[in-house]
Sequence to fold (332 residues):
Amino acid sequence: MAAADNPRDLALSVPDSPPSAPSAPTESARSRERERERERGRVRAFLELVKIEHSVFALPFAFLSALTAMQVNGGHVRWWDLLLITVAMVGARTFAMAANRILDRRIDARNPRTANRELVTGAVSVRTAWTGAAVAVVVFLAAAALLNPLCLVLAPLAVVPLVVYPYAKRFTNWPHAILGIAQAVGPVGAWLAVTGTLDGSWPAWLLGAAVGLWIGGFDLIYACQDSEVDREIGVHSVPARYGRRFALHASTVAHVVTFALFIWFGGLIGLGWLWWIGLALTAVAFGYQHLVVTPTDLSKVNRAFFTANGFVGIALFVFALLDLVIRLDLRP
Fold:
């Protein structure tokens, strides 16, 4: 028999079948992937619109107020309350920023500094922004309802300054004060979330006043960037009405009073040496932002606004937390 007639050789001589090519994705699968990508893009654009990372300013003080209330009322950490306070704060702040951007979109379009914001460029539609704002306020109200009845009853009142603030620059030269009132609500609300009563809430009101003056004070600095444009387009603010120098002096006064209130708060609730270290670092941050921003040089406004003030919130909270941890029962 010839070698070629050997069945084994014949089998070896037969070429292997080529591997089957992976099936191409169907058109419907590609369409779903494109839709998912568009949805992710809309979510990213909305989060950029509301500057979700700016929660670092007010959220630490809500935590500080809540933990102080827990320390005063039994010394036991209630983790579920802290979670709900976080949800409520982020929801309220997201609603406030979305509403502010929606109501100010025509003003933003006339200001070169803000003309690239998402609602002006179309990266986020007005409908999407309103939807996000509605979801955020529902989340806020739901978290308030889960905390206690008093929080639910008072929650609509907390929304009022969040809505008034965007309109304030249309009728008062002091919209920064409205912003301060809106931010002062956080520590008070966090205290009520823990205690369910206004009785004994004096430390929270003190801390709320400090936070309101602090944020209103650095908003005065931030508004200096737009003083000339604001005068041209009829937007009201302290820098536009009274000038940058006056606004910066007013900011300094606000932050001096803020610092005094922080001292008062620490002494009132008996915080220890760790709090005072944090407060000393805060004094440095306050001094820094008022040194680097001048009426004739606003190039470092963003550094003062984001870096210095972000540090204030984090530093004070961390050192106060370390002090409170010594006295709090962390078990769930």
In short: Residues 1-5, 7-14 have pLDDT under 50 and may be disordered. Residues 244-269 form the longest helix (26 residues).
